[in-house]
Amino acid sequence: MSLFKFEREQKIFDVAGVKIGGQPGQLPTVMIGTIFYHKDKIVKDEKTGEFDKESAEKLLKAEEEISSKTGNPRIVDVCSSWPQAFEKFIDFVADRIDGPFCIDGTTADVRMAGAKYVGETGLAERVIYNSIAPEIKEAEISAIKEAKIKTAILLLLNTEKPLIAGRLEVIDKLLEKARMTGVEKILIDTAVFDIQDPGPTGKTIYLVKERYGYPAGCGAHNAIDIWNKRRKLSPETYFASSLVANILPVVMGANFMLYGPIKNASKIYVPVAVTDAYVAYTMWQEHNYMPSTKNHPFFNLSRIAT
């Protein structure tokens, strides 16, 4: 068996027009960038949800353009630190993009407020709940179910055993929690704990797909962002380190990448797209199958640099 070809059938989910999952090389890596996160400079008041609309619109437009050029679909991760701000953030993004978006709150209360709002406004079909963790409480489970959200990220968070084996131990518990919420489309985030985790998270992605077949990915950029020595690095070295962290999971079979602030889209999309093209070319040579979409980095390399 090749390192890249999984024996188990690989699930592919269509979330508001974005397909995610499958064998390596079959579909482009889906890119998930975050907007309105804690200390995002475009947010003027995190509590009330006041923000620089012009700057936010430019960020969304810039990501849309690079996504179109590479062929890597995008999902916007809408984050909020306060319940009362979430409605403004959600409305703004939902009105300006056609595809899916995540609702991502710093606390359960914030996430539940977001779930309630998308349920009331008919946006639930476009929403990915980010995320369901092992310690989720009954109130949050009920909020997701009542909102009729059908797609969620399951976070393989095991603080007592932050190893590959520990991550795998919580999957069945999380799948049961997801069933309780009514979620049908499941994405697995293999969780980053420290600077060295892109290796273990990449390996966990491979094992999750081999054993369960669910789309999997991670937020590998966090490994570099939590590195306490990062401020001593030159900008070029810091960026190169972040690239390595983001690319390794893609080589290991990741279907999506939580790449961090959306402002970094212009820097990260092309390296991930080139990696996608390399993986797809390998699959064609070794297993004789091509990407299942013509809008794939495999076919787009000639125009990415123009």
How far apart the termini lie comes to 38 Å
Q: What would you give as the CATH superfamily?
A: Dihydropteroate synthase-like
- Give the strand order of the largest sheet, numbering strands 1, 2, ... along the chain: 3-6-7-8-9-10-11-12
- The ordered string of helix (H) and strand (E) elements is EEEEEHEHEHEHEHHEHEHHEHH
Query: Which radius of gyration do the C-alpha atoms yield?
Result: 18 Å
What's the helix count?
11
Total domains, how many?
Answer: 1
Q: Mind describing the biggest β-sheet?
A: 8 strands, parallel, barrel
* Count of distinct strands: 12
CATH level-3 fold name? TIM Barrel
Low-confidence stretches: none
Can you identify the CATH class?
Alpha Beta
Strand coverage percent: 15-25%
Rough outline: globular
Helix content: 40-55%
Q: Give the overall average pLDDT.
A: 94
In the CATH hierarchy, what is the architecture at level 2? Alpha-Beta Barrel
Structural class: alpha/beta
